[in-house]
Amino acid sequence: xxxxxxxxxxxxxxxxxxxxxxxxxxxxxxxxxxxxxxxxxxxxxxxxxxxxxxxxxxxxxxxxxxxxxxxxxxxxxxxxxxxxxxxxxxxxxxxxxxxxxxxxxxxxxxxxxxxxxxxxxxxxxxxxxxxxxxxxxxxxxxxxxxxxxxxxxxxxxxxxxxxxxxxxxxxxxxxxxxxxxxxxxxxxxxxxxxxxxxxxxxxxxxxxxxxxxxxxxxxxxxxxxxxxxxxxxxxxxxxxxxxxxxxxxxxxxxxxxxxxxxxxxxxxxxxxxxxxxxxxxxxxxxxxxxxxxxxxxxxxxxxxxxxxxxxxxxxxxxxxxxxxxxxxxxxxxxxxxxxxxxxxxxxxxxxxxxxxxxxxxxxxxxxxxxxxxxxxxxxxxxxxxxxxxxxxxxxxxxxxxxxxxxxxxxxxxxxxxxxxxxxxxxxxxxxxxxxxxxxxxxxxxxxxxxxxxxxxxxxxxxxxxxxxxxxxxxxxxxxxxxxxxxxxxxxxxxxxxxxxxxxxxxxxxxxxxxxxxxxxxxxxxxxxxxxxxxxxxxxxxxxxxxxxxxx
Length: 551
Ligand SMILES: C=C(OP(=O)(O)O)C(=O)O
Ligand SMILES: [Mg+2]
Description:
There is one protein chain. By secondary structure, the protein is of the alpha/beta class. The chain folds into 3 domains: 2-15 and 137-218, Glucose Oxidase, domain 1, CATH 3.50.30.10; 31-131, PtsI, HPr-binding domain (Enzyme I, Chain A, domain 2), CATH 1.10.274; 248-548, TIM Barrel. The protein contains 23 helices and 15 strands. The structure holds phosphoenolpyruvate (PEP) and magnesium ion. Phosphoenolpyruvate is lined by residues 278, 280, 319, 405, 426-429, 476-477. It catalyses: L-histidyl-[protein] + phosphoenolpyruvate = N(pros)-phospho-L-histidyl-[protein] + pyruvate.
């Protein structure tokens, strides 16, 4: 799976495997003293991460600090103390506790499941500390290389030297893993989920394509040269197109960024794009135990809005629940959280949480003069949309919208959009619900593919409804960042595209190389296909050859 675009060629550097606990480790002779020693190990890990954080840039700093916080976690220390008293040696007590926590994180799914890598990283560093061994991780190297690992801990990815790392390959990881997010932010081409990645010997030359996900071991010189030449032509083509998103015949399609906090906002704000199409506010509060106050929220929103001047910022109210649980907005366990009281349903059950957020958004909008538009997640009916619009209006905010990510809302888009100002297709969840496939289940990735013709049918129905209602309809799911799918979406009638900041330039180039009518033809090609793969191929084959060859 390609997760950060661009191609690279160079020798492999394998990342040392994490340190495991010795099998024959004796029980601690003095469990209390051993507990002290283990906790000291965790603290040493936390301190070394903090020291790295102090030298890192802002995004790396947040991640390193978050990992350091895991190392300081008292419940983790208590678990280790318990296992020491029960007769384990220090390294095994740490390993056992980390396993238990990892299991709990994995069971929570989503954001927490992806923190398992951070947790295991803390564990192996702490084990190395109590055993007096060097910390695991990326070895020192001086020649520009392709870093290959089972999975990269955020602390490792965040501190990679950009000038020496040509590309990243991992055997594990996913589209939303830290490796993927950070690599895309740092502009390092990356491929994840490559079977056999860790078996490629250090020093082996490999070529990787972070767009298609292709990795070639020992490529021949002609292949490497062709890839290098293509890379140069793409860079030139991307540099040639700037400014607002538009088709070759001038049909405007706003190109916007998806952001999850202040740092993303600063990065996106500095780019040539038209604003934010999705600010996932729940990302800011994932580790908050208590509901942040109006003042606390206002300050964060103010910092997020500031980099955009008078550009638009579409803010999504808390999408809590399912893959993004929030401690302060939890309605208790559910058998099927993805089908449960999440998103707007949770806001209706706990209206005071929404009220606090809207008050803070209104205050931050007023303080910055930003063009703030507020959008609700997981809307299913016209009545829900109407209720949300009333809450937004009551707070003096001028523009309200809804995510269209439930098939029921997509099929009735004309009615659902009637009482709001705009809609935005969340194709990640729309694919999950249309195909009845859990989006966190890697084994079901083919069903979750936004190129699934059935998903495109549902999008087409929503676009027709939006046109009837006379309301703009954007896309803010991952699909908007795929340049070929972006053409199809525009052909289906979508009016704006919001994506990871690093993906905007390729989408702009694709759009500028096709007329609206050509996009409509491509959309018909995709709808006529039987499978996602057929749809992809048909669109690639029918797209303008000079850009299809580069992207
Ligand atoms: C954009 C979306 O929202 P999220 O990924 O945050 O659920 C979506 O579902 O497509
Ligand atoms: Mg969603």
